[in-house]
Amino acid sequence: MWAYRPTSPQLFSSLSLAIISHMALTQKDVEHIAHLARLELTAVEKEMYREQLTAVLDYAALLNDLNLDGIPPTAHAIPQHNILREDIAEPSLPIEDTLYNAPQQQDNQFLIQSVLDD
To answer: What is the residue-wise DSSP string for 2-62?
Structure first.
């Protein structure tokens, strides 16, 4: 049994409940996943994926058997360090250089075709 408990059950799909309660996925669950992934699956593929995904969830459920007493939660396995440079304001390119290769420009800005209709 998974230790995770949703705070609002209506927010979770049957797939989430399958993970929580450690039950096999249904054909409907696989069809829902396929729909979200925009996949067209045959009946044979649906059954194959149902079995495979259920096996993956069963394997993940083994994590519940681990004794994690005294182990603090972590986001990464190793400490993370910021390797980015300091954010220092520096002079930018002159506007003439920035717009040099622009196909169209107006009022010192790139002029592009409208993407959204009014």
So the answer is: -S---S-GGGS-HHHHHHHHT-PPPHHHHHHHHHHTT----HHHHHHHHHHHHHHHHHHHG
pLDDT for 4: 40
* Angstrom distances, CA of residue 41 to CA of 30, 54, 57, 112: 9, 17, 20, 41
Q: Which residues contact 60 (CB under 8 A, 6 or more apart)?
A: 19
Instruction: Look over the chain and give the mean of its residue pLDDT values, rounded to a whole number.
Output: 81
Q: Which tokens sit at 91?
A: 């002079």
**pTM for this prediction:** 0.45
